[in-house]
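Here's my example:
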Amino acid sequence: MLKWQISPTIGGALLVAGSCIGAGMLGLPILAGLVGLGPSLIWLVIVWAYMLATALLLAEANLWFPNKSINLLTLSELTLGKTGKLFAWLTFIFLFYSLLVAYTVKAGQFVHLGLIELFHQDVPAILGPVTLLSICGGFVYFGANWVDNFNRVGMLGLIATYFYLITLASQHATTVGLVHQDWNLSLYLIPFLIISFGFHDMLPSIKTYLNHDCAALIRAVKLGGIFPLVMYAIWLAVMVSALPLLGDNGIIHGFHHGEIATEPLSRLSLNPRVVIFAQGFAFFAIITSILGQGLSLVDFLDDGLEYKGKSFSRGFLCMLVFFPPLIFSQLDPNLFFKALEYAGGIAAILLFGIMPALIVWRGRYQLGLHGLYQLFGGRPLLIIIILSGLLVLGLEIGTILKWWQWPIPPLTSTHIAQ
């Protein structure tokens, strides 16, 4: 966090926003292009409201203990017992590994291309993710200060390239991409939107940053949630209108080849600055996400795997965090979207959607826990949140078990749904 002289509430809001803005932005325009801008913006607002509500539920639960910062695992144990804690622990692991696999797949490809240009000859594809994860693992090994210092630069670079890309991409905007709508496919977008607003694991850290000021925490969550909503809406509108649906540089082609939004944009533009800033945006978005997720997972495993006062070495934990994503990233070079889909449609909806509602239900109405804040809506809102989460989870499980298939246009498609 940059040490500017800003109010604690604004600082907390920026922490919330920074947790949302990252690699998730890279895949959303391709998916929104498949669905259409209109349906995408509607679902963007709905999922944002859902995730903001569940974040406020977790904030409410955290405020049952006003002078402590309680993480989701501890809250799960206090309200749902050891079974709840174990379930949260396993879901947390699945979420972070899924995200690391997705980011490793895409960032590894970028590093591989960079190595080819650096050495002016072809190199094995696996050297891309190996080099990437070795560097990231080094930062994570040396701890939070190293990651924090890099992320300060990374977030500045991400924001700067974002606004510059918006300006450049808007020059390619047309109304063609705004006409396309496919409501039958629109539910497919939900898991990816859930990932884009998943800042819930940051709440204990934000509460500590705010010196356990309960009112400031609630204000920071609400204000911080608005920033990424606006940035995502602008980003989707500009990118969807700038990218064609069909063709080798189109959205359908990009989806089937696991491309992020900046790749077809770079090929479409004759402006070399677009290529440079598109690559810079993708780099900053992915690298800050990998470092943040990697550091969180190392610290999480360090705490969770401690046995009778003994813990594993940090080097071993770094291997435990980064080696599995390296292996899975080699299974399929187009795994980016699938890994994000599993992360959002299974792990994040359980951990950041359903579980906060279960924790608050148990704490409020069965254990009699109360704090300085309570989200409106009572039992009806909690029921809506739980049932909505189960619906998303059911859709994802049904897709995995092949009970149905999403009507994704084939690579050779020339049809635009109206």
Observations:
- Confidence is low (pLDDT under 50) at residues 414-418.
- Residues 8-126+174-268+332-400 form one domain.
- The two ends are 45 Å apart (CA to CA).
- The CA atoms of residues 177 and 372 lie 47 Å apart.
